[in-house]
Each structure stands twice: as structure tokens, then as C-alpha cells.
Amino acid sequence: MHALNSSMTVSSRDFIGITDLPSITAFFDQARDLVSNNRGFLHAGDVWWRFGRNELEQHLLHLWFESEKLIGLGWLIAGHFEIQSHPNLNDADFDNLAREIVDWAKSACSTEIFTDCFAENSRLIRVLESSGFTPNNDENFLFHFDLTTKIPTVELPSGFQARHVLETEFEKRVNTHQDAFNSTKFTLQRYARVRSMFGYNPELDLVVSTPENELASFCVIWLSGGVGYFEPVGTQAAFRRQGLGRAVILEGFRRLQVLGAQTAEVFAGIKNRDFYESCGFCVVNRFLGYSFKQE
User: Fold this and answer.
1) Would the pLDDT of 7 be above 80?
2) Where are the domains positioned within the chain?
3) What is the C-alpha end-to-end distance of the chain, expressed in Å?
4) Which own/partner contact pairs does 168-174 have at CB distance under 8 Å and 24+ positions apart?
5) 3-class SS at 95?
6) Which residues contact 30 (CB under 8 A, 6 or more apart)?
7) What fold, for 149-261?
8) Does residue 3 have a pLDDT over 80?
9) What stretches of 129-281 adopt beta strand conformation (E)?
């Protein structure tokens, strides 16, 4: 154990495995309860999705505690860096903890490091820039939809249906994902791991099917703390610009509303902003990209 400053004594350790996930998701849920529109804290669904889609050995993750309370973490996946610390830390404790997390990331990763920073998080921006991180022109947004309002209606082409995926369609579902993202990284094994995550609800693993039962669009929604988080969302290339992506999202809104959720949320880059706004989402947060090049 060591003292970050005179007011707080902190211990840290490496991530020990999936058994740590409940503590991590609880940390994010509690942090988000304390701040408006999350202000840079991950949704529990983002944690579940990332651990589902990536093999365990790809995660470099270190946890910081005050007594037994989780107050911060650093998380690296293929060079992408999440730096998170409890929102109630005072400026001095935040500064010291954030610098320690950054130092951990630099020592843990030998390649270039990338991170997204909430644009109004001046405390973290100050730490990143003083630690050698520079803006890289990436820009992302957090979008919200108020589920207490009326959900827009959508008419699908004849024979198309918005529904949850069936157990007999898992291979189709993986193939649809691979086509939508032009990548073969998402496999049946990874999809099985996604479905094994605590927060997975098969009724929120949605698709739009064609009259021939081909899967055209899809999304997975993760519900935690009254907020439904969409990740991932995609449409096969051959079916784009037909309103099918919007249809699967609106079906997600409807199901979340039935489950009593208050808000729907999605995180996306600027190239997808028009699409999500066409679904009724509104920007609530803006994130700036930073990177650090190892010497």
C-alpha cells in the first residue's frame, strides 16, 4: 500500500479475472449515479461487451482501491486506454491517482496508446497533456434517447420483421456482424462469450429479418441502472439505406420502455452522428481523442 497524498491511502492490483466484473460494473453504475449524463463513465454494458468480444488475455487491467472500495482503474485493449477514477475525488487525489494510472499504462503497453476523454473533463485533460498525450483529431459522441417520451413508429418493407435472434440463427447472426463491420474477428466463440455475460438478455439481442429469414440488421442492448446501452449496432452492406438499422433501434426502444428503462444510450463517432440522430438520439457528451507514442 502507498499514500497518493496525506488524505488517502490506496492499494492496487492487477485484474484477476471475470470474478472482478461485478465490482467493476458496480463502480461504473455508482459513478454514473453521481454525475449528469455519465460525463465519461462507461456503461456496464460496455464492460460486458468488451469482455465478451475479446479474449481474456487481451485485457490489461489494473485496479486501485481505498480500503476495499474501488476508486479507479486503467484498462488497455490493443492499445486503447480507459482511465477511470471515482467522481468524488478531490482535485489533488484525482491528479495523483490519474497520473499513477497513466504511468501504469505506459509501462504496460509498448505500442501507441489511444484514449477518449470527455471534452469537459479539464482535470483529466490536464493530466493527459502533461503526461505526453496529444490530441489526435478523433471525435466521438454519447447519445441519449428519453424513453419516457413517445417512440417514433416505423414501417418495415413487406415480410421484414424486427425481433430477437433465435437460437437456431447464431451462425447467421455472426455472419451478419462480420459483413456489417467487414471483419472476421467476431466469431461463434466470441458470440457465445458475449451471451455468457451477466448483463446479456436474449430478448434484447435484436435483428431485422428478411422474408427469406436472412438477418439484415442487428443490435445488442445492455440494461443497467435504468439505462439501455446499444452495443453493437450494424447492418449488412446490401441492406443499408432502407431504414432497417433505424427499425431495429426503435424496436430496442420499445422493449426497453416495456422493461421500465428511462434512457437509451449509444456511443459513436462523427460519421454515424446523422444516423443516430435520425433515430431520435440527441448528443449529450462530446469526447476528444488523445494518443501517446512510446519512444
Assistant:
1) no
2) 2-141+288-292, 149-261
3) 30
4) 169/207, 169/213, 169/215, 172/214, 172/215, 173/205, 173/207, 173/215, 173/218
5) helix
6) none
7) Aminopeptidase (3.40.630)
8) no
9) 134-146, 161-164, 205-209, 215-224, 227-235, 263-269
Range list of H helices, the chain:
21-34, 44-53, 91-108, 122-130, 170-181, 188-196, 244-258, 273-278
What is this structure's pTM? Answer: 0.94
Contact residues for 115 (Cβ-Cβ < 8 A; gap 6+): 80, 81, 82, 83, 128, 133, 289, 290, 291
pLDDT of residue 2: 43
Residues 87, 91, 95, 98: what is their CA dihedral angle, to the nearest 10 degrees?
0
The predicted pLDDT at position 250 comes to: 98
Assess contact for 113 and 79: CB atoms under 8 A.
yes
Side-chain-facing half-sphere of 57: CA atoms under 13 Å: 0
Cell digits for 2? 502507498
> How many CB atoms are closer than 10 A to CB 29?
17
Would the CATH topology of 2-141+288-292 be identical to that of 149-261?
Answer: yes
Is the pLDDT at 157 greater than 70? The verdict is: yes
Q: Which fold has domain 2-141+288-292?
A: Aminopeptidase (3.40.630)
Q: What angle do CA 93, 86, 193 make, to 5 degrees?
A: 140
